[in-house]
Write a sequence for this structure.
């Protein structure tokens, strides 16, 4: 048996390695090694995609402390000022017509409750999502997911159909190619084949991030929206990873066109400083539950600590202009990624970037990816390296400095060259 008294996630326990973060500031965090020494790492991953505000955001920390002194225990139906303020702020940044918020403890719970709402509001049970997607680790959310984490736990939820992906990649030199084998037209045809007006909802990440930063081509989202409307099917934007500036907008789908009916969020809603998620609901769905029971609830619904962290995080995004900054810095970031690709066209055959999220497809086998991982670790640069899809994903905190980001990419490039 392994020595630790707790489980490590997504791991065989005998092969899991602890990673002790002891603090940090901005885009860097401090790690204590087995020998007791502490070293700074550059965070080009935002940890598990949640640290959009970076490390050591004192405003959020202080807000949590104040809330702990004021109120910690309440009931799911409890009302307090921060809860109302957070809901109203989230809705203010959503498209017109969004009128209600359902709070959760994280992204998977947000997806689960969006799923419930879709089934209850439409009276249908079928759902459609994409193969290269991730919607959460709970059984309903995992059933919607399409990546390698779903098959070991099947059978999942009845009525879920997956469709092929559709995304655009940059090739060395600047030309672009649409890949994945899917299209909005194919998704619409799937709705037809599943039976007219039989699908409750389509669940889509604006840009699947953990599965390779799969940016849809122009027109994809509006065409999916039109197909959903034709079938009376709801469109759910799973913005758990893409939200709060990651793609250079508040929720991520805004730059793609085609507003959804429900929006799921988590991760960046608190910058990772406390557990919280939410479902934002358009009036055309919310009105169903004025007289019909919403069969959904959680003991820690709208917990004061998570709410306080979320409200202050949103104020920081607003006050510091971080969403707009992510959009502008994202333009430079995409250019730097493209230049890196052009310098190493055989090693990096495809790249995709939007906002402060980029995926670099890397040529090589598992041994090469192991070397690349060691080279990045030696430089103390933290990234999302996924040998299953041969992709390195970069998602730095929104507070990272331009030169700091450029220097980080230079470290990534040096690691690529060393590991070739």
């Amino acid at each position: 048996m392994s020595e630790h008294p707790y489980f490590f996630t997504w791991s065989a326990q005998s092969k899991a390695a602890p990673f002790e973060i002891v603090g940090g500031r901005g885009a860097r965090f401090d790690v204590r090694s087995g020998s007791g020494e502490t070293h700074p790492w550059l965070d080009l991953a935002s940890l598990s995609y949640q640290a959009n505000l970076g490390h050591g955001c004192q405003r959020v920390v202080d807000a949590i402390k104040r809330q702990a002194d004021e109120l910690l225990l309440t009931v799911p139906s409890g009302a307090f000022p921060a809860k109302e303020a957070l809901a109203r702020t989230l809705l203010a940044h959503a498209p017109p017509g969004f009128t209600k918020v359902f709070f959760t403890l994280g992204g998977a719970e947000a997806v689960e409750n969006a799923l419930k709402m879709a089934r209850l509001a439409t009276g249908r049970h079928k759902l459609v999502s994409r193969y290269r997607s991730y919607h959460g680790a709970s059984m309903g959310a995992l059933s919607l997911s399409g990546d390698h984490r779903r098959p070991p736990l099947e059978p999942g939820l009845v009525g879920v159909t997956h469709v092929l992906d559709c995304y655009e990649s940059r090739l060395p030199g600047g030309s672009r190619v649409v890949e994945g084998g899917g299209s909005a037209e194919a998704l619409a045809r799937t709705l037809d084949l599943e039976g007219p007006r039989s699908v409750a909802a389509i669940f889509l990440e604006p840009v699947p991030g953990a599965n390779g930063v799969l940016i849809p081509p122009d027109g994809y989202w509006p065409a999916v929206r039109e197909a959903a409307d034709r079938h009376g099917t709801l469109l759910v934007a799973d913005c758990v990873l893409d939200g709060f500036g990651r793609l250079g907008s508040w929720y991520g789908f805004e730059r793609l066109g085609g507003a959804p009916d429900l929006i799921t969020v988590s991760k960046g809603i608190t910058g990772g400083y406390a557990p919280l998620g939410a479902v934002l609901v358009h009036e055309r769905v919310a009105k169903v539950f004025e007289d019909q029971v919403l069969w959904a609830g959680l003991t820690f619904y709208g917990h004061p600590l998570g709410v306080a962290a979320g409200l202050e995080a949103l104020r920081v995004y607003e006050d510091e202009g971080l969403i707009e900054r992510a959009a502008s810095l994202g333009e430079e970031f995409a250019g730097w990624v493209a230049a890196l690709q052009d310098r190493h066209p055989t090693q990096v055959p495809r790249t995709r970037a939007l906002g402060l999220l980029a995926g670099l497809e890397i040529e090589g086998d598992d041994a090469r990816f192991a070397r690349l991982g060691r080279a990045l670790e030696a430089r103390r640069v933290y990234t999302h390296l996924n040998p299953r899809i041969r992709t390195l994903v970069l998602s730095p905190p929104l507070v990272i400095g331009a030169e700091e980001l450029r220097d980080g990419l230079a470290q990534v490039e040096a690691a690529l060259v060393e590991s070739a």
The longest strand covers residues 98-104.
